[in-house]
Amino acid sequence: MILKKRTMETRFADLPTLQSSVVAALVLFVITTIAFIWLVVVYFKRKRAGSPDDSNLYIDCAYFCEIGKRPSQQDSVYISDLTDYRKYGITALVADGMGGMEYGGEISEKVADFVEGMCPMSFFATEQNADELRKLSNQLYDQYKLSGGSTLAMVHITGNFMNYYSVGDSDIILIREGKPTILNPRQNYMALLIKSLCRNNKQTVTAYSNPKARSLIDFMGNQNPRVIYTKKPIRIFDGDKIIVSSDGLTDAVALRNIHHYLKDSASATALELKRAVASRKRPKQDNYTAIVFTVKRSFM
């Protein structure tokens, strides 16, 4: 009996210590939970501050389409309805009809009409969209039998992301922090020559003087052309500028000099680029066409 009494006394003596441990654990749990919630709130606040709400992004757009020294305009332009931007994004196309070919201008118009019929297109179905463009090219091949062709340079912007599609040698240029980069490779014979020369550790200067250098190896109107397109959307940011143009612009104004003509608004940039080409007074100036976008965010 005495042993049992001592055991009971020992158990009762341990009870306050146990209660204290439970209370301490609960207090620690509450403090940890509050700290975790606070860290989560801070994280999302900083993330939102660093990446503003897409609803505040807007696109400023302008374009020009000039004949140059050619007898007719063979470039075509399409820009989707800007009022539908929030719902469908913006689709913009430049199609440069192949000069010197009888149906170049006619085919470029058909490419523009086809893209208009594709809109509104799915932003996330890039492979399917590329397939549709390839099917169009095969239809043009069957109809014109290589008696004409056109390039295709197209962007599709939704929110703060962009996809692009390209066939031929028209340019899609992204300008970020004043630095221009051509996103799409040119599909002409010069590109093949340069690639081959580099692979064999030879100088590339001969590629530029080759009489066939500017000949297209893929174009709309060719059979089963390679349609280059983005596998993953490109993130665009406040202050970015995007130029979709025929080679008539970039042949006259070197890529490294484009930053000299950038202005705050798309219309002012387009005007400066158009004047820059005209001021060169090149005797064989090609048709020159460009669509200019500026990406801006409003915090109002």
Short overview:
It contains eight helices and eleven strands. The protein has 300 residues and is of the alpha+beta class. Helix 3 (104-118) runs antiparallel to helix 4.
Could you explain how this protein is built, in words?
By secondary structure, the chain is of the alpha+beta class. The protein folds into 2 domains: 1-50; 59-297, 4-Layer Sandwich (Phosphatase 2c, domain 1). It is 41% helix and 22% strand. The chain is built from 8 helices and 11 strands. The chain has helices spanning 2-50, 85-88, 104-118, 126-144, 189-199, 205-209, 247-250, 266-280; strands at residues 57-66, 75-79, 90-96, 152-158, 161-167, 171-176, 179-182, 228-229, 234-235, 241-245, 288-297. The strands form 2 sheets. Strands 2, 3, 4, 5, 8 and 9 form a 6-stranded antiparallel β-sheet that branches. Strands 1-11-10-6-7 form a 5-stranded antiparallel β-sheet. Strand 4 and strand 5 (161-167) form a beta hairpin. Helix 3 (104-118) packs antiparallel against helix 4 (126-144). It is elongated. The N and C termini lie far apart (83 Å). Mean pLDDT is 84; it is low at 1-10.
